[in-house]
Design a protein that fits this description.
The complex is a heterodimer of chains A (410) and B (150). Chain A is an alpha/beta fold. Chain A has 2 domains: 9-30 and 300-409, Aspartate Aminotransferase, domain 1, CATH 3.90.1150; 45-297, Aspartate Aminotransferase, domain 2, CATH 3.40.640. In chain A, 40% of the residues lie in helices and 17% in strands. In chain A, the strands form 5 sheets. In chain A, strands 4-10-9-8-7-5-6 form a 7-stranded mixed β-sheet, sandwiched between helices. Chain A starts with 8 loop residues before the first helix and ends with a helix. The model of chain A has no long low-confidence stretch (mean pLDDT 96). With 150 residues, chain B is of the alpha+beta class. Chain B has a single domain, classed as Sufe protein. Chain: A, CATH 3.90.1010.10. Chain B has helices at residues 20-29, 33-46, 88-101, 106-111, 114-120, 134-149; strands at 60-62, 67-75, 78-85. In chain B, strand 1 (60-62) and strand 2 form a beta hairpin. Chain B is globular. The chains are: A alpha/beta (410), B alpha+beta (150). Chains A and B meet through helix 12 of A and helix 2 and helix 3 of B. Bound molecules: pyridoxal-5'-phosphate (PLP).
Chain lengths: 410, 150
Amino acid sequence: MPVRNIFDIDTVRRDFPILHQEVNGQPLVYLDSGATTQKPQCVIDAIVDYYSSYNANVHRAAHSLSEKATARFERAREKLAHFINSTSPREVLWTRGTTEAINLVASSWGSENLKSGDKILVSALEHHSNIVPWQLVAQQKGAEVVPIDVTENGDIDLDALDTLLGEQVKMVAVSHVSNALGTVNPVQEIVQRAHYYGAKVLIDGAQAVSHFPVDVQSLDCDFYAFSGHKLFGPTGIGVLWGRENLLEAMPPYQSGGEMIETVRFSGTTFNELPYKFEAGTPDIAGAIGLAAAIDYLNRFDRQEVAAHETQVLHYAIAKGEELSGIKRVGTAKQVAGVYSFLLEGAHPADLGTLLDQQGIAIRTGHHCAQPLMERYGISGTARASFAMYNSVEDVDRLFKALAKAKQFLL
Amino acid sequence: MVISTPHPYTQNPFGTTISADDICNTLSFFDSWEDRYQYIIDLGKELPPIDDSYKDEEHIVRGCQSQVWIDSVYSEGTLWFQADSDAFIVKGLLGVVLAAYNGKAPGDILSFDIEEYFNNLGLMGHLSQTRGNGLRAMVKKIISVAQLTD
Ligand SMILES: Cc1ncc(COP(=O)(O)O)c(C=O)c1O
């Protein structure tokens, strides 16, 4: 029987060694988990353990170390499958991250399923990683990437989606949670509407998976992409989940070792799923580290974690309303993990510098979402992004530091 | 150094009335980050704003964080620069850079060790390799202009 840990913020913080240091002479407040999350000790230990006790290549050798590495590597895949409620680990492909996962679909699925005149819809909220791969394949195929507008408060405009949907739309690619504004998009609703027209749906879950449970079956989407490093796991590993029948029909993305069944100069046959899409030696340590991160998350009741995060985020939103001059960017119906804001009269880059001097790590700029910034007529925002290890005290430090920065800049 | 017609570039205090040494000396007085950054912000206020007509594609140095515009003229063996940014601290840092480069001969620009200068000022973080660092991109531009005219 799995034992659940009661969520306790002080205990959780102790699990993340990096949080306990000074930056510029001040205790670190890390509010840039949207860019990458910190890692709990158990993830670091799992990677060290792999390299110090059973490092070997997977699926290749006949020796015991390789068997152990292969077993752990494939168990990691099963864990990830379970994590997103996939029906089978065959639908879970390892990638380098969200970006590579989307590129894989755009390139492989796109090459077989797109033709001149087709449309790919992406929301105006998207990260460049969920825009540019589609632009590239669209260019090759004579298809078109069409943005779905967002409303002033940062929600995807579902009426605009309805207007755009039609026979020619073959793919709708949207984020589950916006990295720039924190908007939680009604992806289930979007899937329903897109499927009605026969379009496939890819969901960029990079900013979602660390904040709340994701169930690809109930979402009913066709592809779901996310990055390990935004989910308390290591960099260099990510997941593309895809429906088995779609993946089966797609051509390989890259080619080489392990994704092959037989190679003859007369012709090559490819390995079965998921290996067909995993050319070359994979990031074994990454997969094992990510599985450890999933184990860590599963120690908790995820609803409890989400409730804590919501409390911290809403506390930040309320504090922002109290400090004059602070303007929140994006006031979507439902938000997760992100507080994007401006200080009127000050440049976000200056805020970032002055907060850094006070030990507060935030991100400033366009957040790789230039079309969205253009939509709002701004060059960027300051973004505090939160994870399970952030506390209301972190928010207090943020606003104390903001009040000080304000004295400098206004 | 005399320029025959009065030129807006020579009105820039950085590199003329405010030298790199002046900035080093002043910054070394301050102990707290507050004083240092107040000084940098104040330096930014002394940087003459670039004419809006220069805020175009040709003059922009794009960074992820902030934007920088720069223009240069070469006259009688001397390079003159004008630079501006949409961020206050970046503006101050542009002043710090121009104190070293503005109104100098290309050869002097090329032999100046900007890394050491920023290191001594305790501002190395701002010249970091972070992708899209506008300040670093601007330094590169200045150096390439100096190489062209040297
Ligand atoms: C919404 C979203 N999509 C895609 C990405 C790209 O993720 P990665 O760089 O891990 O491939 C990010 C990361 O910033 C993101 O926030």
